[in-house]
Design brief:
The complex is a heterodimer of chains A (600) and B (221).
Chain A lengths: L1 E2 L5 E2 L1 H21 L2 H6 L15 H9 L60 E12 L8 E6 L8 E4 L4 E7 L14 E2 L1 E4 L15 E2 L3 E6 L22 E6 L5 H6 L3 E7 L20 E9 L21 E4 L2 E2 L2 E4 L3 E8 L6 E6 L10 E6 L2 E9 L1 E4 L4 E7 L7 E6 L20 E8 L29 E10 L2 E4 L11 E4 L2 E9 L6 E5 L5 E5 L14 E4 L4 E8 L4 E7 L2 H5 L3 E7 L10
Parallel strand pairs in A: 3-6, 5-12, 13-17, 16-24, 25-28, 27-34
Antiparallel strand pairs in A: 1-2, 3-4, 6-10, 7-9, 8-11, 11-12, 13-14, 14-15, 17-22, 18-21, 18-23, 19-20, 19-22, 23-24, 25-26, 28-32, 29-31, 29-33, 30-32, 33-34
Chain B lengths: L1 H25 L12 H14 L4 E4 L4 E3 H6 L3 E7 L7 H15 L8 E6 L7 H11 L5 E6 L1 H10 L7 H5 L7 E6 L4 E6 L4 H12 L11
Parallel strand pairs in B: 3-4, 4-5
Antiparallel strand pairs in B: 1-2, 1-5, 3-6, 6-7
Helix pairs in contact in B: 4-8
The chains are: A mainly beta (600), B alpha/beta (221).
């Protein structure tokens, strides 16, 4: 009889597979990816210059006998950081035909389910967005190329929303016809508002896609969880969210479409997180000192055109890094505190962010994490680095006063070579991926934002002592090269879990896939991590989450309340390649008819 | 909801002839659609061919020699999986399931969509063995079984990503990748779904690359 470290009884073949995976990983690190190899490969250039034909991808190619090209060389730090434009509202009453509860199929709406909360939270703010092909410059060293963007912007425009102001977005699919995708991407979409407490029909789930030429009205109530249940009238202020994002979620094609540009930020303010440093929590002023940052890794082919590995099942790891859509930008900052909202859009890479001063590599450069997955922590947590997987966010406060007149870099120092997840290797300072450079001016400036060192309090953590109605277990595994949950694969045909509305559940996520890591995302409600079996819960994880990283052989126990809305939502791995290769299931919140399936 | 979903699924084969009608228009000829001849699209298509579709010679179960790209992929909607006749793991279930998919697709198989199963053990899976295997499972016309020189089969396995990152698992045929690649070559659409999911779900997945306008949300009401 064989057992995993978590006590799971497994077959001999499975045990062998686990041992092999472990052994292989050790070999990979020891034999293939020692520090010397990296030096030989020319990857350790302090300036972060990517050298042609000596990147990780070549290495991977020799190892895998297949795979992706090495990106052409591009000069880092020659372009300023682009800031995504703020999405402009449409005056109320302007949208034609008028938004309504029932789907307007005759007028080309792709929605098929009536809005469940339209008349409870009547939309006050209206937007119209068009998904379309667009010509983009990622670097002056690469050709102008065709990507897909919301309103033709990559990443898409930033929505700035307020609690208490329900939003309606009319979302148009104006993507090019079949056959004109430039090599990858299906012009069939569904836009998920990630972390939104959103009625299911507006959630942008994987199976609610609509086609080219259609549109879809998405209703975002912008309400606190609990508003129709545990905290009637207002909702639970301790469930307030700040940093949401939106992205395509089309089943089987999410990696392609998000990689191609269909991502953007959605920020949510209230009377505490005001966006003004003289009010509420006194966080740095938006937008001057509150900066959303989209991190992605890409591969470009021999002609400098964005390359997507169509036949990769494991995860796509790029060798070229972009921030807000351009290669390794620089950003001029003042010597004061800034709030940065860091988002990893993948497709598959984990980032471990450090601040690096190339003139003093031994120096420790702490900063503050104030929010995890867009939700403010009870108090700031001081760190020297913070790790996120795909779709996770951290909001950080960086104080540039001590770098007055200098440059400092945001650097990813965790080594990752394939879709398995990060290796155990933290690269030395200056030898990781320099993602962007901050150029700090020396002029004196005002800073009325709160000093995290004074330990301000934000929101308290919602209570997690309530008795769960049921404890369910979800086992994440690899079966014949595909990604499974409880031995099954995604399908839009069935909802595998029926949850009673407004009930409490514990969900145990268990990683059976050896040394593969999975950032697991669950829609509708935030969760809290009650425990991890192998690793302690990191201080920055002691908050409200919507993505929990399932590390090697890990078991995590999550607390959930499924409140206020009904309908279908997914649970899935947010390594978008795993997600597209079946590591997803649908569950449903029901008024009645809940099930008691503990291993759905 | 579940009941309605089931009802909808049962209805699928009935709407298939209609869908076939649409398809016949879109794919009157199996060559590339005429309207896609802009330089960028042609260049992108050519890159995919060069990178992923080596034009190696294979042998069909009918003992005909074919070229992988020219004869099997070019201008076509395809489904590709790997197997071997002696496989006792997932293969029997997968093959039986794909037979169901073939029935759902009806006479479009071999015309609008081409099904391919490539052996991972070409040394033992001769064309005769493959014919026997097909007969055993009731594989219908329009679905081609393929063998070839071991090095060519291996090259295709690598190129199409029927591979495992773990070298030991990768060499173990019994652990082979159990999905169906589905794609539309001229439209540059490629994806995959597990071969063990329901036949109706595989059928629906393949339909996404065949024709626009299948709004999934409709069936979830």
């Amino acid at each position: 009889m064989y057992f995993t470290v978590s006590g799971e009884k497994i077959s001999r073949a499975r045990y062998k597979q686990l041992v092999n995976a472990q052994k292989n990983r050790r070999e990979l690190i020891a034999a293939q990816l020692g520090r010397r190899d990296f030096l030989n490969m020319g990857l350790l250039t302090g300036a972060g210059y990517l050298v042609a034909k000596s990147g990780l991808s070549v290495h991977a190619e020799s190892f895998m006998h297949r795979g992706q090209p090495a990106s052409p060389p591009v000069r880092p730090f020659i372009e300023p950081l682009p800031i995504m434009p703020i999405k402009k509202k449409v005056p109320p009453g302007r949208l034609r035909p008028r938004p309504r509860v029932n789907p307007n199929t005759a007028a080309g709406e792709g929605r098929t389910i009536p809005h469940q909360a339209f008349n409870i939270f009547r939309p006050k703010v209206f937007y119209e967005v068009h998904q379309r092909a667009t010509q983009v410059s990622v670097s002056p060293d690469l050709p102008i190329q065709t990507l897909w963007g919301f309103d033709g912007v990559v990443p898409g425009p930033t929505y700035v929303a307020e609690y208490g102001e329900p939003v309606l977005v009319r979302n148009f699919n104006d993507l090019p016809p079949l056959g004109q995708n430039g090599g990858f991407g299906l012009p069939s979409v569904t836009t998920h508002l990630h972390n939104g407490h959103t009625p299911s029909e507006s959630d942008g789930g994987p199976c609610m896609f609509f086609e080219r030429g259609q549109w879809y009205d998405q209703h975002y109530p912008n309400v606190l969880a609990g508003i129709l249940s545990t905290h009637p009238g207002h909702g639970d202020i301790n469930e307030a969210m700040s940093t949401l994002w939106y992205h395509d979620h089309r089943v089987d094609f999410t990696a392609q479409s998000t990689y191609k540009g269909l991502v953007g930020f959605y920020l949510l303010f209230n009377e505490f997180d005001t966006g003004k440093e003289n009010k509420g929590f006194h966080l740095p002023n938006f937008p001057e000192y509150d900066i959303p940052l989209v991190f992605a890794d890409k591969v470009f082919d021999e002609d400098g055109i964005l390359f997507f590995d169509l036949f990769n099942l494991d995860g796509i790891i790029g060798d070229t890094f972009t921030v807000n859509g351009v290669v390794q930008p620089f950003f001029e900052v003042e010597p004061r505190r800034y709030r940065f909202r860091l988002l990893d859009v993948g497709p598959s890479r984990f980032f471990d962010f450090f601040l690096t001063d190339l003139d003093d590599l031994n120096k420790h450069n702490p900063f503050w994490v104030i929010a995890n997955d867009g939700n403010l922590l009870p108090k700031p947590v001081q760190v020297e680095n913070v790790r996120i997987g795909v779709a996770e966010r951290v909001d950080v406060i960086i104080d540039f006063r001590e770098f007055r007149g200098k440059s400092v870099y945001l650097e990813n120092r965790v080594l990752q070579v394939d879709g398995r997840g990060p290796t155990g290797t933290i690269l030395p300072a200056g030898q990781g991926n320099l993602l962007m450079r901050f150029d700090v001016s020396s002029r004196p400036v005002h800073d009325r934002s709160v000093d995290p060192d004074t330990m301000p309090s934000f929101y308290a953590l919602p209570d997690t002592t309530a008795q769960p109605r049921i404890v369910r277990t979800f086992k994440f595994d690899r079966l014949n090269g595909q990604w499974s949950i409880n031995g099954q694969f995604v399908s839009c045909e069935d909802n595998r879990v029926r949850i009673k509305k407004n009930s409490v559940e514990h969900w145990v996520l268990q990683n059976l896939s050896g040394d593969w890591q999975h950032p697991i995302h669950i829609h509708l409600e935030e969760h809290q991590i009650l425990s991890r079996q192998r690793l302690p819960v990191d201080p920055v994880e002691r908050g409200r989450k919507d993505v929990t990283r399932l590390t090697e052989n890990e078991v995590v126990n999550l607390f959930f309340r499924f409140r206020d809305f009904t309908g279908t939502y997914p649970l899935h791995c947010h390594n978008t390649v795993h997600e597209d290769h079946a590591m997803m299931l649908l569950w449903e919140v029901v008024e009645e008819g809940e099930d008691n399936n503990i291993v759905p | 909801m579940v009941n309605q979903t089931r009802r909808k699924l049962l209805a699928l084969p009935l709407i298939a002839p209609f869908a076939g009608g649409i398809l016949a228009n879109a794919f009157h000829s199996p060559s590339a659609p005429d309207n896609i001849n802009d330089k960028a699209s042609l260049a992108a298509r050519e890159k995919i061919r060069k990178r992923f579709f080596p034009n190696v010679a294979l042998r069909t179960h009918e003992d005909k020699e074919v070229r992988f790209y020219d004869d099997l992929i070019k201008g076509k909607v395809v489904m590709i999986n790997v197997m071997y006749a002696e496989c006792e793991g997932i293969c029997p279930g997968v093959t039986a399931n794909l037979v169901k998919v073939q029935k759902l697709l009806g006479d479009r198989v071999g015309r609008d969509v081409f099904m391919y199963s490539m052996t991972l053990k070409p040394e033992t899976d001769t064309t005769e063995v493959l014919r026997h295997y097909m007969k055993m499972y009731g594989v219908g016309p329009g679905w081609t079984y393929l063998t070839g020189k071991p090095e060519d089969v291996e090259l295709l396995r690598q190129k199409l990503g029927f591979t495992n990152l773990d070298p030991e698992l990768d060499e173990d045929s019994s652990q082979h990748i159990g999905n169906v690649r589905y794609g539309n070559e001229p439209f540059m659409l490629w994806a995959a779904c597990p071969a063990q999911v329901s036949a109706t779900w595989i059928y629906e997945s393949v339909s996404w690359v065949m024709q626009p306008g299948q709004n999934r949300a409709k069936s979830k009401v």
